[in-house]
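This section describes the prediction task in plain terms. A model, or a person checking by hand, is given the sequence of a single protein chain and must write out its three-dimensional structure as a string of tokens. No templates, partner chains or ligands are provided. The sample shown here is typical of the held-out split.
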Amino acid sequence: MAAAAAAAAVGGPQPPQPELPAPGLAVDKAATAAHLKAALSRPDNRAGAEELQALLERVLSAERPLTAAADGEEAAAAGGGGGPGAAEEEALEWCKCLLAGGGGYEEFCAAVRAYDPAALCGLVWTANFVAYRCRTCGISPCMSLCAECFHQGDHTGHDFNMFRSQAGGACDCGDSNVMRESGFCKRHQIKSSSNIPCVPKDLLMMSEFVLPRFIFCLIQYLREGYNEPAADVPSEKDLNKVLQLLEPQISFLEDLTKMGGAMRSVLTQVLTNQQNYKDLTSGLGENACAKKSHEKYLIALKSSGLTYPEDKLVYGIQEQSAGTSTLAVQGFAGATGTLGQLDSSDEEDQDGSQGLGKRKRVKLSSSTKDQSIMDVLKHKSFLEELLFWTIKYEFPQKMVTFLLNMLPDQEYKVAFTKTFVQHYAFIMKTLKKSHESDTMSNRIVHISVQLFSNEELARQVTEECQLLDIMVTVLLYMMESCLIKSELQDEENSLHVVVNCGEALLKNNTYWPLVSDFINILSHQSVAKRFLEDHGLLVTWMNFVSFFQGMNLNKRELNEHVEFESQTYYAAFAAELEACAQPMWGLLSHCKVRETQEYTRNVVRYCLEALQDWFDAINFVDEPAPNQVTFHLPLHRYYAMFLSKAVKCQELDLDSVLPDQEMLMKLMIHPLQIQASLAEIHSNMWVRNGLQIKGQAMTYVQSHFCNSMIDPDIYLLQVCASRLDPDYFISSVFERFKVVDLLTMASQHQNTVLDAEHERSMLEGALTFLVILLSLRLHLGMSDDEILRAEMVAQLCMNDRTHSSLIHHIPENPNPKSGIIPGSYSFESVLSAVADFKAPVFEPGGSMQQGMYTPKAEVWDQEFDPVMVILRTVYRRDVQSAMDRYTAFLKQSGKFPGNPWPPYKKRTPLHPSYKGLMRLLHCKTLHIVLFTLLYKILMDHQNLSEHVLCMVLYLIELGLENSAEEESDEEASVCGPERCHDSWFPGSNLVSNMRHFINYVRVRVPETAPEVKRDSLASTSSDSLSSLQNSGTAQVFSLVAERRKKFQEIINRSSSEANQVVRPKTSSKWSAPGSAPQLTTAILEIKESILSLLIKLHHKLSGKQNSYYPPWLDDIEILIQPEIPKYNHGDGITAVERILLKAALQSRMNKRIIEEICRKVTPPVPPKKITAAEKKTLDKEERRQKARERQQKLLAEFASRQKSFMETAMDVDSPENDIPMEITTAEPQVSEAVYDCVICGQSGPSSEDRPTGLVVLLQASSVLGQCRDNIDPKKLPITEEEQIYPWDTCAAVHDVRLSLLQRYFKDSSCLLAVSIGWEGGVYVQTCGHTLHIDCHKSYMESLRNDQVLQGFSVDKGEFTCPLCRQFANSVLPCFPGSNVESNLWQRPTNKSIQDLIKEVEELQGRPGAFPSETNLSKEMESVMKDIKNTTQKKYRDYSKTPGSPDNDFLFMYSVARTNLELELIHRGGNLCSGGASTAGKRSCLNQLFHVLALHMRLYSIDSEFNPWRKLTQLVEEENSQQGNEEQQPEVPVLYHDVTSLLLIQILMMPQPLRKDHFTCIVKVLFTLLYTQALVALSVKCNEEDRSAWKHTGALKKNTSDAEKSYEVLLSFVISELSKGKLYHEEGTQECAMVSPVAWSPESMEKYLQDFCLPFLRITSLLQHHLFGEDLPSCQEEEEFSVLSSCLGLLPTFYQTEHPFISASCLDWPVPAFDIISQWCLEINSFTERHAEQGKALLIQESRWKLPHLLQLPENYNTIFQYYHRKTCSVCTKVPKDPAVCLVCGTFVCLKGLCCKQQSYCECVLHSQNCGAGTGIFLLINASVIIIIRGHRFCLWGSVYLDAHGEEDRDLRRGKPLYICKERYKVLEQQWISHTFDHINKRWGPHYNGL
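The expected answer:
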């Protein structure tokens, strides 16, 4: 009833209703809606319906908005009131209110959702969405799931992958037609339709009334916005404008579809109801605007038929003059009648192919059953017109999504699919004209893949709508528009047309969507069967395929190099693969069983017809035109593949589907031509055609194409060979390969068709081709698993492969449904059977290996098949690589030491249908060729190679393996009638022919040949032999004539009217050109048989006389058990022995003859000459051998030298085996340090005027700042809750401390109390090589002029070390100084500590005048400048007064600190390992100290403020301090950082420093450090502990060593500090600080030691660098005592006492208690005012853990799922390339312009803030890590690998990835050791754009 009411509501023009006052409406839409809903709910709802209709008429009238909008916004603003959008918004508001019927819209949505029977997911996504595909669960190969459904289903152990959608798609979860139910997710498993309540009638009642109107309104808009584009002007802009305006409406519809099943079914009703459509579209009344839009619609419809004049089709069908407004075009169904009167129009006659057009047309017309394909479209429902506009507007994304969102509704799905098919031709036309064909293709496939993947639906549409006819016709039409005349064979008269590969249609793959739909529907058995049964369709399809037959013809350039290399060939290969081969594989997959024989017969029949037509069209007789080749023979390949399938799977009799002999001869010509051309291309005969011809030869055999190209071609040739006369076939082969003239016994010959330099490789090509032809069994009886195994072995033998490259290289069946999918079980099981997995390894150099598969030993031993390798190699070098690997295996396993020949491999047995193929091996022509070649090789004729011999032997062996006739009648036949005189050999069996002696041969030779002179005597004297001579005359050389004769016979036999075939002109090329010298006939005495030649060959190869001795004479067993492993591998000698053994096995006669020959041991033929020559060759050999040995020796020596250099120079990660740097060699007898300059090679000291420098790399580093104080490393956040805050890092803590000090104390004093450089500190490293600074300058100059693109910027001072090529950017001058002097300095003096303190003070007091202006001092200055510029200003300037000298002072000693701290970290954070440091050998700290000290002494500290005084003297209470209260105080000594003080004190001293001064400074500072430790300890513990200690210590105060007892000192410190307010304000919040543990003496001792250790470590390192003393190694627990004794803090006799006490190291310069109380006083005066801060400053955290990168989760998916949808915190968008920093976890947009600041993109900016120029980012969408270092960046690789140990860059394969801990370790190591620049080689500039 509701439907009836709805019909009434939208029925014809109603009488106008009394309208409600407009303002009232606007105010209260809800009330109106409620009122209307009530009115409509009454049984008699007529009035309500009319009222609603009037309202909708007004609200949704299409008159205002769009026309205004289209004419420009200003008009709209003037006339429309609220701008263009206001009216639509108003309308939408109304619709929402009306739908909800007065309630709230949100509540309405929720209510409708409750009735959603969510059985299907149906989520629609657009391009670039990340989805999943599970092959285990999928029924259709196109199945896909959204991430949510995938993760909620159970797919463990399945074969799934994640992928980025190319064209968009929809989730199939819940659809059992496409996937197995086991894979459904939890939400869609329940068949929930049963328990969903029925939808209440009134809920959706309003929707049924309102929606038809709304959709009609939308259609009106679309009609109106469309303008038929003018001639050639693209109207995209206008279309887009209209679409933008309609955005809200379409989004509204889209939202409705998301409300679930109930709303979808209402929408389906509305969209498919024909009555609604008719009423609304016809009831336009007198509305002018509506009329206008209707006219536009009709115009748009006009062009929708398939044929209309604008298309320059080959069919010149003109517009008929019918009176209708649409085009009444006569389609093909009736075309036969009208053909007569339709003359071709002018456009068609462009290439004069009128006759062709007609012929094709007639053919076509018979097949097209359905007139409607051709006709103009007629629309009967909203859905149809909506789709029509969707196509017209080129598939706007929103519309596509709306149409797809509706698909879960089954009724809609069927209706929509039919509509889609109805519009198919129109889609093709729009696509062809579109400028954005790529986007449009994707959108089309987005839709069609959802419709056609469903077999049930596809079958229904095929039956009801002629889907197949439509598709084939549409494809045919599409290709018609780009046909050109074929130039193959007969250029003038050819009637064949081919597609032109240069056209956009092919070049841009525009046909792709249609072809992919076709492939998709053919994958359904029911549809494919229909296709294969329908003869008309098959004819049309073969027609279509023939458009590709012979396309992209190549003509060999003989004179000039081609000017322009066209790259169209790839389009041709892609077209054949996609448009011909893939549909073929689809059809083949349904021809697997015997019942399908009929289909094969049909295909073969029409294929042969099409081929026959093709041969006629190109006027082909028997000779292919010379110098041209096409790689595209799809008809041949269809025929071949269906034959193969018929024999393999359908048990068809091969002969029943083969044509007659003549056709077979024609069929073999073109595939054979391709094989010969391949050899020509590889012989560089096509080089003038440019590189692209090589590209074609490679593509033809490349893994994606080979099984649709070369394999069918070879198979077809095998079939032809097995059925044709073998002599004819063999002679054809040698003629095609142009080597007939070479096959002569004469030593010289004339080749009329081939240059001499190409002869050898062409002969090799011909023989290799024969070997492949005879030994390949891919289609001749191998099972699928055997094929897979053979392919895999061939690939693995060429190179070790990763799993993915194996999958990539093994030709899979191109149709996804065919069964052998890589990754399927058989693939994995075969792989594990033939290969071993080599896990990914890490070389110290940092090059990362992936997991590789390598062949097992037994595979090399038994399965290595050179033939398969040759067939499958794209590059010739791969064959060599396979042989090298084979050789290496044989050497390693001790099977064969020399250079082996390719092994002979046993073949799988032939299928009985192809037995005839073996006749090739037993035909005289081949035997003559083999005999001739053996003879020529033995006689050393030119142009023969080892490869030729190898192939000849291979063929002989193949013949012996496959000999058919038995031995029994062999003896008898000797004297039988077989011995006729005209032939070389008696029979055709190789076994018997091998022993047949040939005595004389007549040859034609040039007069100049040596044979002529030599043989003139012989011929006269041997008249008696003339009868014999005839027996062997020029049989071979009439190969060509022989072939002609056979061909003639066959043709005469087959054609009833014996018409003589007209010879094509081309045959004349066989006559020799006039320029050639005259040929005369000579007679050669040969007297050899194949067997005797083989034995002599054995002598020749082994270089010894009589080297062959029949093995069976010693060991008769050999003849019984033929398989002898020793013959399996070896070189030519082994091969000959193997063949002779097989020959002997096959026949007793042969065995006897071999023995005879060996007994005679005939000397080689022309005796005198050869012996001399042989002697010569032997001498030559010997000499060569010696030379070779010498060369080997030299090479080995050179290699070892190079190795030692590489180890010295390049070793970055393992410097253990390094030669220590010359700088540290402190031998007393040398007076000065000597340096080698690596540029000029001179050695000498560094002097003031010609200084030497160290090659260094300066880089800013924040690694130190990343240390944290807790042990467990931070994890990368993978949920919103886990965030990382940087306040516990070392850098943050130091920052806080400095700013605290600066708040309360004098600035200049603060800057001496701390170190900076935790972030952005400058790290200096060197490779250890030195150079003169002037040499370096000229080196830089030459780099600057050298314009080669380097990976570094010379203008920034960057260069690579001239010796070891390590990256560097500065030179650190070496301070001239003598070593002897430093030795003197180190001698201990026995001065007291008080004297030393005074000396130190005096030395510091002397102002350091800067040395006079020498070159050295200039360099010192410039390097200092470099050091400053290395880091950013913010990391240098900490003072409150910018530019104050204190800043520089602080910066300089902090550089020293940074380098020492980093070295400590490189040693693992402690000095337990001892020894000279790894970095020490190449350390430049000594030089760096000189430079820093020189500069620091320029700033003399005012002796008033020198901290040294405060440390070593008791200062009287000065009243001045109290006087100027307003001035900020200095920093109390106890707040000073002791390590900083140490560096200040040492750098203030004149260099070089004396050892005892150094020790003195250390001792003094240790007292301060120890006091700080005690103070910190006292603050840490609670009140009771303090009073207890204060008490115990006070008791011992008067003992002798009170100053060295920590208890006494601690109690004194506590009592002193108690005078101030430090301990007072202990509120409850302080309790957190208090450690709950009671302090025991052991724990206190440990605390004090830990507090002091960092200082001792740094000091020991410093001592090691300044004085070159080695560091002792020790256990961790004794580190403190060892270091302190090494520093001279411990008296030597002390080491006896067992429990070590740190206090025993103290050596107080002044009475301890006095100086401590002085220090504590400063603190007390500060804590008077700021007790809190005073306390915080005392507790320093000194125990930093080593820096680490963030810890990553095990599985990459967890990172990916969280980050790839995460929004950026800066721009709040989801970044296109998200990245995350692995140091601090910050999420950034890579390359995002959204987050750019001052031309720096976010990653670069972050790398400067987080790592002072070094950034390590994980790219989320690529799983790759990228390193930014300064202005350069590099791709580092991935730390996530799949189950096969390989990376998945860009997540292309989408397999699950797991963390590789070792790789991550390597990355972290490179980060900490600052070696990114040295280890990673591929750097490029990033121009701040990352």
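For orientation: Residues 1016 and 1082 are 8 Å apart (CA to CA).
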